[in-house]
Amino acid sequence: MKLKLMIIGLFIFITTAQAQQKIIQLYQGAAPGSENWNWTEGESENKLFNVKLVYNVVHPSLEAFLPDPAIATGTAVIICPGGGFEVLSINSEGNDVAKWLNQHGVAAFVLKYRLTQSFTDDPMKELATNMAKKGFEQKISKIIPLCIADARQAITYVREHAVEYGLSPSRIGIMGFSAGGTLAAASAYKYTPANKPDFVAPIYPYFPPALQSPIPDDAPPLFLTAATDDNLNLASHSVDLYSKWLASKHSAELHLYAKGSHGFGMRKQNIPTDTWIERFNDWLGLKGFLKPIDPKAKSPQEKQEQAEANRKKYDEQSHKDWANIKRYAADNEKVIAQGANPKSVVYMGDSITDFWIRSDSAFFAGKPYYDRGISGQTTTQMLVRFRDDVINLKPGVVVILAGINDIAENNGPIKLEDIFGNIQSMALLAKAAGIKVVLSSVLPAFDFPWRPGMEPAEKVVRLNAMIKDFADKNHMVYLDYFSAMADERKGLPKSLSGDGVHPNLAGYKVMEPLAEKAIAEALKRK
Questions:
Q1: Which 3 state secondary structure label does DSSP give 346?
Q2: In the 8-state DSSP scheme, what is residue 68?
Q3: Residues 63-90 pLDDT 10s
Q4: Helix 457-473, helix 416-432: angle, nearest 10
Q5: For the chain, percent of residues with pLDDT exceeding 70
Q6: Which of the chain's ends, N or C, has fewer CB atoms near its CB within 10 Å?
Q7: C-alpha span between 493 and 487 (Å, rounded)
Q8: What would the pLDDT profile of 401-460 be if each residue is shown by its tens digit?
Q9: SS3 for 163-217, per residue?
Q10: Measured between alpha carbons, how far is 110 from 95 in angstroms, rounded to an integer?
Q11: Positive or negative, the Cα torsion across 69, 70, 74, 80?
Q12: What element of type H or E holds 318?
């Protein structure tokens, strides 16, 4: 079963990755103006600066990064990494930006535009050497028109294929960093209807007056950001662009940070520049680019606001009834009135249990099964309501599935040992009341959509080991959902979960026979 699920999950992971990250060649055959270029594109890792570089680009291309359709806004950004027209900082100023935008419902297309030829396998050192030479600006002036042509071609491609990618053709913007900022800024001039950007975001761009021309009457809105202490002295280029947009009475926004130097991109320095992309996202929202093109859909911001409203409502309720004992009070009275049933089963848990009966009510229908899951709860809350929702019902078996919200720190930091202690206490209380106990493994989780970056996978593994060891030593049944459902990342595959934490119907269908087998085993034990 586990191998089969892993194969299915791996297949879905691969096909999803292919769908989400597609490579598009901008031109059929050689790119115009560089037909005789014959060098080979390469990649280099610079450990000193912790940066991945692409160099010797001959055939311009786009890599598509598409958001989850559930949060897609229909807006797209073409991203032009920087690197002095000799290299591309492909992660910090490219792929990492794309992934962040995807999380906020925006499609991204990372552009590899044509570069001057590098003659060594250390393009960063070669760039630094060339920039120190007097003729550097003259050298790059020859390739800049080709790079700008690539950017215009990228806008044209994305607009022509907007329907294919679920985009609005009137929401195609461009962003560029440093040299890539040259491309982004230049695209706001001398455009055609096919390659006009709907918004432009040059980030610490190189854009001297020599590259400028009269601002069009219908110029797109402009977002700029840079650092005052830019070590290439390019902050003035952003100020100049902003001033000219302002003078021509076009929409513009400028964020000029006191500190950040040049090339901060998505690098974390624990200073205000770390949040520049959030300001960009605010600006997109202000300009209406984050409102989904589907009128029935909610934007990521609207969903976040709804989640915040729900959280406040939950907090208010928690102050009055922290463990939410009243949730099942009326239902519990009915069960108690029926008298004890040695074959009845209480499913005790959090949202995974709470959502189970909603996702597959047929599993519970006609059986003495009682769902006592409450979304968002931690083991501490479950322990408080355990007597009301389990012991007083006098079931034959209790199936305890708990711990994932503790790992997510829903109620604040907590040690794994304390999470296990709460589960252990519930199990011992049930045993003392003559109730057979089934202790479930915590389901696999690679990340939490409501609290990303917590890396829960290994914590789940460790907690499950504690639970299994306790179950074995106390002659309780251990219900191993984890082994049957985990993918190669020790998370839930997309085939079994929409968000990587909560099972979908297919996920519950995997769980159900395992649960019934564990219950049957528990009922046999004396």
A1: strand
A2: -
A3: 999 998 888 999 999 999 999 999 999 9
A4: 30
A5: 94
A6: C
A7: 6
A8: 999 999 999 999 999 999 999 999 999 999 999 999 999 999 999 999 888 888 999 999
A9: CCCCCCCCCEEEEEECHHHHHHHHCCCCCCCCCCCCCEEEECCCCCHHHCCCCCC
A10: 7
A11: negative
A12: helix 300-320
Helices (H), 88-190: 96-103, 123-131, 136-141, 144-160, 179-186
Q: Cβ contacts of residue 239 below 8 Å, gap of 6+?
A: 254, 256
| Region at 376 (left for phi over 0; alpha for psi -120 to 50; beta for the rest) | left
Percent of the chain with pLDDT over 90: 82
Q: Which helix (H) or strand (E) holds 52?
A: strand 51-55
In angstroms, the Cα distances linking 109 to 97, 124, 209, 228, 347 are 10, 24, 28, 29, 46
Q: Which two tokens stand for residue 186?
A: 């230049």
Q: Is 375 exposed, middle or buried (0-12, 13-18, 19+ CB in 10 A)?
A: middle
Largest CA-CA distance found in the chain, in angstroms, rounded: 92
Alpha-carbon span 315 to 306, nearest angstrom: 14
Q: How far apart are CA 17 and CA 23, in angstroms?
A: 11
Contact indicator for 472, 441 with CB cutoff of 8 Å: no
Residue 130 CA: distances (Å) to CA of 113, 116, 154:
19, 11, 28
* Distance from C-alpha of 95 to C-alpha of 520, rounded to nearest angstrom: 51
The H-or-E segment that residue 331 falls in is helix 329-338
Long-range contacts of 455-460 (CB under 8 A, 24+ apart): 456/404, 456/407, 456/408, 457/489, 457/490, 457/491, 458/490, 459/407, 459/416, 460/403, 460/404, 460/407, 460/490
Q: What is the phi/psi pair of residue 292, to 5°?
A: -55, 145
CB-based contact 105:112 (threshold 8 Å): no
